[in-house]
Amino acid sequence: METIKYPAKDSWDSLCRRALADKAAEVTATVTDIIAEVEKRGDQALIDYEKRFTGASLSALEVTAEELDHAETAISDELKTAINQAAENIEAFHKAQMMAPVEVETSPGVRCLQRAVPIERVGLYIPGGNSPLFSTVLMLAIPARIAGCREIILCTPPGKDGSVHPAILYAARLAGVKHIFKTGGAQAIAAMSVGTGSVPKVDKIFGPGNRFVMEAKQQVSRSNVAIDMPAGPSEVLVIADDTADAEFVAADFLSQAEHGPDSQSLLLTDSARLADILPEVIDRLMSTLPRQDMMNRSLTHSRVILLHDTDEIMAFSNMYSPEHLIINHRQADALAEKVINAGSVFIGPWSPESAGDYASGTNHTLPTSGYARAYSGVNIDSFMKKITFQRLTPQGIASIGRTVEIMAENEDLMAHKLAMTLRLNAIKK
Ligand SMILES: NC(=O)c1ccc[n+]([C@@H]2O[C@H](COP(=O)([O-])OP(=O)(O)OC[C@H]3O[C@@H](n4cnc5c(N)ncnc54)[C@H](O)[C@@H]3O)[C@@H](O)[C@H]2O)c1
Ligand SMILES: N[C@H](CO)Cc1c[nH]c[nH+]1
Ligand SMILES: [Zn+2]
């Protein structure tokens, strides 16, 4: 992990670069090949890729009713209770996001309406390479159900023995997912985008994943399917000052680092003391934890950055546009007001990212790699389309008819004008 003190402004851009940037071309080519194979060979390509990447020998891709029943007994009551509480909070926060229709009479006799309508068929990707992310099932399937999506399918890589982790199956059933397929990586994304013998084609694909998954979502979105957002290797930016408990900061770093070798953690601080002691506190805490190899690899592209003041800190943070932003600083509330770019923000010392990852109720499927500049994390809106409606009466034609005629004429679109002129003439009779 690097410590950088008072970097010059012209170096900030390069300090904001993600670890993935260098490997993009190689990943792009691999993913293009996988998508082409799935389009050509359907289910058999999925089965072959699962053998290659997970070691699983599959004869069928869909999880059976027996496997779902077995999952109910295979996890502890303690875990079920935890999943249930998290599900309740996620449901409460996402239900509150449902939007009422918008209806306005813009001119006399001209009524405009906007109504949110659920996307019919959605596909959820649940990562399973490094950990079985059953929490992600809740984050995607609960809002999909609340939004009213008619068909919700889920893909996740199986384990070597060909099974899906029982907590993923429990969470999926709890959230109302009916069809689950044992396939992961770019091949799962390809399958949901075109449909195979087993996996249905969907209208929109959701979910995070590693760089292969993220690249596949971006490639398929150029053809026939929508995606939620580019959500790749997880990242956190912590803003902390000398009031912050260094162990809290270190644990927040490590909880990101354990997600995978591509994850990135950044500390922005105005405390020289915190910048100096953090690496040692991280080492001490890491020595008590599993996954040290993964954490060490992730920490090679993590950074401690000492800046002069909170203005610099917020300017840097907004430039980096983190997926997660933890503000563990004496001015936490004031700094939170200055956030322009971030996926999800954790305010104060008692708000670790873990809370939002699992159970506070906010969604943890968030834009990474700087995409928080323009994308939101998953929310109810992600599962809806907004359809607009309008109804004009003869009074409405009288109100805006001449305006439409003039504008159409000036765009040289005389059929547009005619459609209005005929009606204007009709109401004069
Ligand atoms: N942004 C978010 O909201 C968010 C949320 C949760 C997790 N995440 C991220 O999701 C990621 C999960 O990654 P993961 O690897 O554990 O699981 P994953 O399910 O995303 O990927 C595993 C699959 O990737 C494919 N794969 C692996 N190596 C490959 C190779 N060399 N060539 C082609 N395909 C290959 C295989 O099919 C494998 O089964 C982590 O990076 C984590 O940080 C992000
Ligand atoms: N931090 C991940 C990306 O937001 C989500 C997650 C799932 N489980 C634990 N964490
Ligand atoms: Zn996490």
TrEMBL record:
Cofactor binding notes: Binds 1 zinc ion per subunit.
Gene name, per UniProt, is hisD
- Active site, UniProt feature: 323 (proton acceptor), 324 (proton acceptor)
Q: Which function does this protein serve? A: Catalyzes the sequential NAD-dependent oxidations of L-histidinol to L-histidinaldehyde and then to L-histidine.
Names of the cofactor(s): Zn(2+)
Which domain of life does this protein belong to?
Bacteria
Question: Gene3D superfamilies annotated for this entry?
Answer: 1.20.5.1300, Nitrogenase molybdenum iron protein domain
Q: Which organism is it from?
A: Heminiphilus faecis
Q: In which pathway does it act?
A: Amino-acid biosynthesis; L-histidine biosynthesis; L-histidine from 5-phospho-alpha-D-ribose 1-diphosphate: step 9/9
Any one GO MF annotation of this record: histidinol dehydrogenase activity
Q: Where does the chain bind Zn(2+)?
A: 256, 259, 357, 416
Q: List the InterPro entries hit by this protein, alphabetically.
A: Ald_DH/histidinol_DH, Histidinol_DH_CS, Histidinol_DH_monofunct, Hstdl_DH
Q: Plastid: present as a keyword of the record?
A: no
| Entry's family note | Belongs to the histidinol dehydrogenase family.
Record's protein name: Histidinol dehydrogenase
Q: Which NCBIfam families has this protein been placed in?
A: hisD (TIGR00069)
